[in-house]
Amino acid sequence: MGTGISRSQSDLQKEIFVEVKDNTQKVVFTCDCSSRDFKDLLASAAGVSRWSRISLQTRTGDHVVVSAAVPVNERSNPYVLNVAAEDTVDREVFGEVLERVAEQFSNAFQVAEMKQEMKKRLGELEKQVHADGMKLVEVEKCKRDLSEIRQQLSKNSLAPVRCYNCANNHQGLLALPRDLPTYDKYTLSAETTEYLRKPTFDIWDWEPNEMLSLLEHMYHELGLVDEFNINPIVLKRWLQTVQTNYRNNPFHNFRHCFCVTQMMYGMIHLCNLEERMSRTDLGILMTACVCHDLDHPGFNNAYQIKARTELAIRYNDVSPLENHHCSVTFRILAIPECNIFSNVPDSKFAAIRAGIIRLILATDMARHSELLTAFKDRLKTFSFDDPTDMEMLQIILVKCCDISNEVRPMEVSEPWADCLLEEYFQQGDREKREGLPVAPLMDRDKVSKPQAQIGFIKFVLIPVFESVAQLFPQLEEAVIRQLRRAHERYEELHVLEGILQDEKAAKEQLKDKFRSLSAGNSKVSFTADNGTQC
Fold first, then answer.
1. Beta strand pairing status for 13-20 and 79-84?
2. Active-site residue 252, yes or no?
3. Residue 65: count of CB within 10 angstroms of its CB
4. E strand or H helix that includes residue 146
5. What is the pLDDT of residues 43-68, one digit of tens each?
6. CA-CA distances (angstroms) from residue 296 to 252, 325, 333?
7. Phi and psi for 425 in degrees, rounded to 5?
């Protein structure tokens, strides 16, 4: 959507200087250049393949982000352009894959050998019970031994930790952390860190490793690393493990996790929440956003319940996905190398755990009306000193961030609407194949984007943000105005869509009439002036 401010071509261009083999070159690019195009440009400057591994460093050895957000420099102080040959990268990747395969085979053989040994012991004990006629005390002791062995076998058959994959109806492994974090620490420009605080932040410009670095920056900048005494390496491992345990769904994926967390980070700064909440509460908010959709299968709660999946059975049809997200969250934190709260006292961790669970469970949209009504009731006498009021505010803030795509500019938000509809339509297709009732928004033959967005913005988004704006009036200008613009645009698209459908229907009617007239004319006869029958 336009800003009303025209910019010349020179305003849209940036230039940096890079050193390649003792030769300084100038690289000119536009501010909206994608990361892939920017890397291709650097590869061309270096005269190497676009698949080569490229990195930028300052003279002091600091890594610089390889995207259009790179800070400008002077010819006298160029960035060092480092290149790893394509075949070297391939060998490194291949070697890493071989090491992982070897490690997995080794683990599998060890488990098999252990099971074989335990089965052998079990057989020997069972024979001893039946053959020797032991005394009663000895029999009871032997039975206890048998029970312990069976329990060990059961545990080994479930190792490593597993999460239920309700979409594919099989057990999926919980992805464990890598030995060492593999993404570089990027040098973020002042422009980038300031932009990161804005609700208008364009989340499509960043690659996965860059998103990890931005999340890491948020935890440092908010003081959460100091508050929880987090080892920086553990923070990296935790973020990588979280990323690995988000699936590649059209919508509920790691980029959505980053999008929601960045919006919360923006709300913290926009609403000055650091003055209203403790750092512990801010950590609970941020961590709940990071983990709120972990291992989402791409099929919502309604499908889980209708299809009677394992998740629905396990959680008795009560928010099965949100309960699963909580479970995966704390199974990751149970891994010592990933526990960002390992240095927190037990009493404080109990409060953190309770807060994260409360916030993730509140993201179930089936509870939206209930929670919004409760929040509006508390607004009548709201106090920032009341713990119950503050818990309710935290719940509503997480809900706002979870559904906040339309707060961003249209060119950022509209692709998210396409992604969400595609995930809905995939569920609708599956429901049709399985003979299940198809939810209203899931049928690709009946739903259009404007039709879906108009009601959601009008009856869900605007009311919940307006309620929060009663406490933070600055949201009116920064957030709610954009929501109203988005609603108006989808209304216009809906009208245009109706006109196009009417024109299409009119054309079809004309075609039918033409075909009818053509068929009728072939049977009509008349007499010409000369008396000839035609």
1. parallel
2. yes
3. 23
4. helix 136-158
5. 888 888 777 788 888 888 888 888 87
6. 6, 7, 18
7. -65, -35
Which phi and psi angles does 409 have, rounded to 5°? -55, 155
Structure tokens at 79: 């960035």
- Residues 11-24: pLDDT tens digits? 578 888 888 877 88
Please give the pLDDT value at position 163.
Answer: 40
Q: What is the C-alpha R_g of the chain?
A: 30
Task: State the pTM of this model.
Answer: 0.65
CA 475/CA 325 separation, integer angstroms: 29
Please tell me the distance from the alpha carbon of residue 458 to that of residue 361, in angstroms, as a whole number.
24
Q: How many CB atoms lie within 10 A of CB 436?
A: 15
**266 or 75, which is more confident:** 266
d(CA 64, CA 83): 14
Interatomic CA distance for residues 315 and 325, integer angstroms:
12
pLDDT > 60? residue 160: no
Indicate which residue of 63, 130, 217, 252 is catalytic: 252
Least confident interval from 184-188, 286-290, 392-396: 184-188
Task: Output phi, psi for 14, to 5 deg.
Answer: -130, 160
SS3 at position 240: helix
